[in-house]
Amino acid sequence: MAATEVFQLSFPEPDVAVLTLDDPDKGANVLSTPVLEQLSGHLDALDARDGLAGLVIRSGKPGNFIAGADLREFVKWIDSGSDQIASTCRAGQQLFMRLASANYVTVAAIDGICVGGGAELAMWCDRRVLSNSSKTQYGFPEVKLGLYPGWGGTSRTPRMIGLANAVELVTSGESIDAANAYAMGMANDLVDSQQRETAAIAMIRSEQASKQYLQDRQAWSGPIEISETELGFLGATASSYISQQTKGHYPAPLLALELMLGGAMGDVQAACEMEAENFSQVFGTPVNRSLLNIFFLQDRNKKDTGIDAKNVEPGQIGSVSVIGAGTMGQGIAAANVRRRIAATITDTRPDALAAGVSKILEEVSYNKQIKGADPQRAFEFAPLVNGTTTDSEVAASDLVIEAVVENAEIKKKVFAQLEPLLRDEAILASNTSTIPITRLAADLKRPEQFIGIHFFNPVRKMPLVEIIRGEKTSDQTVATAVAYAKAIGKTPIVVNDGPGFLVNRLLLPYMNEALELVCEGASLKAVDRAAKSFGMPMGPITLFDVVGLDVAMHAGATMHEAFPERVVASRLLLAMNEANRLGQKNGLGFFNYLRNKKRGEPDPAVDAIIEKCRDATQDFTGEQLEMRLVLPMLVEATRILEEGLVRDVRDVDLGLIYGIGFPPFKGGLLHWADTLGAAAIVEQLEPLAGIGPRFEPTEMLQKMAQNGKKFYD
Ligand code: NAD
Questions:
Q1: Nearest atom within ligand 1 for CA of residue 356
Q2: Is the CB–ligand 1 distance for residue 331 below 6 Å?
Q3: Model pTM score
Q4: Which fold has domain 7-284?
């Protein structure tokens, strides 16, 4: 079957060709083998034409120039040998280089997303015209996949926009907007998106008159103009910054830096060759595989409706009410207002309501650029926030989210009072972190329209939302909640009802184990260090101080009640609570925050408490501590899969990455477990089984170990 034609060739003027990329089979243009082959064919034909003044490359998709390489195709080569990988890079470089050596001027006319391979293609053109739309984004996100741009990205970029700019762009992976691209010299003109083709043709005419493009071609194919001293200084500052950011877990940015510095003194051909030769050092590595896994987890999540049925249309949520104006209520209301969904918020305490409304306005009107409240935004958002103490104002909402204190009786009273007031289609939701949704729904008239929508604290920063399906929750309600969470920019994961739902059920065994290790002889610092060396953003001991030791004890008690055989009620946590050491909130937790609110210091009073709880004085290696912390979480995850709490293993991984910051370079808990293999895990668990049932391999793990199955089969 012939590949679909993705380019359209036209001649708006006799000596100007326009190639429009518009893949009819895809929502966004991506660079796949057929697309590259077709580009090559068009260049052959255009090169053979006499009297061509210029070529404009544009996209037929508004807001999307090219979103990069076709990653699904790309991963098929992941097991290739290094020669094959290098030659794939070379083929792309050679194709794109033709744009910088054609016997006519080449201009990319860009509107919208222009990233990865698309940004490289555009860079090899002589000139770039960018639309000044807010959707225009130019960048090299490859490092976020554990890679670097390998089609000339590290070779051509520093020659065109300077080494310092290129280092920042390529090693950060962050995209820039049109204005920044222009300031950096990446864009040569900024125009209205409708004008980009006309502007590109005008640019061809002026380049043909001045022949400046020929001088630039020559300059950009030679060495970069920079002294050895400047090169050394840039290298030292950039590598120390990158090392600090990546903590040694992500090798790609440093390698990209080395390539840009190493290739600076030679010509662009030699730099391209280094880029191709080294690509196998990043492509196919465990970090690359992990980050690709996360890309696919996110991609799947974007498409997932949250239910298996195909013919259920989610309802529209145009207005929301939030009950309870405390920490979570404020964050939830602000998340809605920011996405221009009107939010009514109530509280039984007028003072809490007033403080809540003012915090919401403060949050939504914050402007990063001026590092403070932006009056324009405040003016725009204020009409969307309605603080009230009367229930009747809640009645018109499409969705009501309860975020009052964590007490089942109080919550049930709120629901009993509100349900009769609501419209027939309205959804009632709870933000509870521990109480079963089915239990909260027990006395409701419409339990099918009741659901858990569990936001994480702080709502502003945490992308994850657990959507908890009670026994009677309908598909329609789940689909609506999922679509709503996405509409306010969150990543929803659907979880069946159960103690701790997904994230807290998995976090608890890990946190609890940290305390058990301390009681067995490990130091607080050693436990935190082991977790961070595994890649966690923060050690579990510090996390206790951040969450609050009282909150942690309450959550622990709920889980102990649900799973008494596996969840140890920590005597150390109890002793700390008895000593009124509640964490950062009162300045005294496992560490002392009285002198420095953010960075706790060791406290002899805690040593005395630990001493009383200690029942062993074992020495642990860092690796032993890491495995002790992570294995109980992994075993519990297999129980969650056995119980069918989630619909797919991917939900566990995405939930932990977004919910607790599980290290992305490990690709998720189960992805990481697959790299070890079930047999190796069972082997690691065997000597630990004596510690308690939380280390006993589940039936699922044992079977997987026997038949060599993986979680991601
Ligand atoms: P909070 O104590 O900060 O706020 C609760 C608010 O609810 C208070 O302002 C209180 O006056 C108000 N309230 C009490 N009874 C009410 C009633 N009958 N009607 C209206 N308002 C009432 O609590 P929070 O931390 O915001 O937690 C709220 C809910 O969110 C709890 O269920 C909690 O478990 C859950 N949650 C909390 C976190 C967290 O980290 N704080 C994270 C996820 C979920």
A1: 9
A2: no
A3: 0.92
A4: 2-enoyl-CoA Hydratase; Chain A, domain 1 (3.90.226)
